[in-house]
Design goal:
The protein has two domains: about 130 residues, Jelly Rolls; about 80 residues. It is built from one helix and 16 strands. The longest helix is centred in the first third of the chain and has 6 residues.
């Protein structure tokens, strides 16, 4: 097999990260993930649209997209991204039917992104679920998922270059504890980064990128020090490299 190289294909004048984003370096893909949780009180929650701790499917299953506005959103189109039972990347386009639902033919072991693709925005939230458990939500007005949740596909490695956490609060004196969590396959979640923030924004860069191996789950969680309402956003970004080609 060929060995993946990170050598620039165009020269040294253009930044490496820009060349990756432009697709000028083979087997390298720019990566960015953003999540938002509008209401965290004094309980640990994942930074995503739905709230609570995120649940992962135990096996690859079909997903049903359902609009809270039912038939009003008939004809709305979108796409769901995730991984199949072998941790390979898969996606499926959907069009909501006359009752505002769509069930995939593809099965998903993981779902980590979905968004609206057509010219019509949904009137209601679209939950992407199986068996009563929601795995993603396209929030009305956002037109895509806002989930700081990701799983590294098979045969690839994710190198995280930095993360950002933001905190909005309606009462002074509270702080948020934000954790960047990683779980290797068949293991438990461990804390890779833990920061406290009182309003505003905190950046945690990795001068030596944080290596996340294939089939690892990643998510950001937060908890408030007081019993009050908080909004928390989180991003993490880096480069995905295919290990063998």
């Amino acid at each position: 097999m060929a060995q993946v190289s990170s050598i620039t294909r165009v020269g040294t004048s253009e930044p490496f990260e820009l060349q990756v984003a432009r697709g000028q370096i083979g087997w390298h893909t720019a990566f960015f993930k953003y999540g938002y949780n509008p209401l965290i009180v004094n309980a640990n929650e994942t930074i995503w649209d739905v709230g609570g701790i995120y649940a992962y499917p135990g096996s690859a299953v079909a997903m049903t997209a359902t609009s809270a506005s039912g038939a009003t959103d008939s004809g709305v189109t979108g796409i769901i991204f995730g991984l199949d039972t072998d941790y390979k990347e898969v996606s499926e386009d959907f069009t909501l039917d006359g009752s505002g639902t769509y069930t995939t033919t593809q099965t998903f072991l993981r779902v980590f992104r979905a968004y609206i693709t057509g010219s019509t925005a949904p009137a209601g939230n679209i939950n992407i679920a199986n068996g009563g458990t929601t795995y993603a939500r396209i929030t009305a007005g956002e037109n895509q998922t806002l989930m700081a949740v990701y799983t590294v596909p098979a045969g690839k490695t994710l190198y995280i270059t930095q993360g950002v956490a933001t905190h909005g609060t309606d009462t002074s004196g509270a702080f948020m504890t934000v954790r960047f969590m990683v779980r290797n396959q068949s293991s438990v979640f461990r804390t890779a980064v833990k920061v406290d923030i009182i309003g505003g924004e905190i950046l945690f860069p990795f001068n030596s990128p944080l290596k996340i191996t294939e089939k690892s789950d990643i998510e950001v969680r937060a908890i408030c020090s007081k019993n009050q309402n908080n909004a928390v956003g989180a991003t993490f970004e880096g480069i995905i490299i295919e290990e063998t080609v």
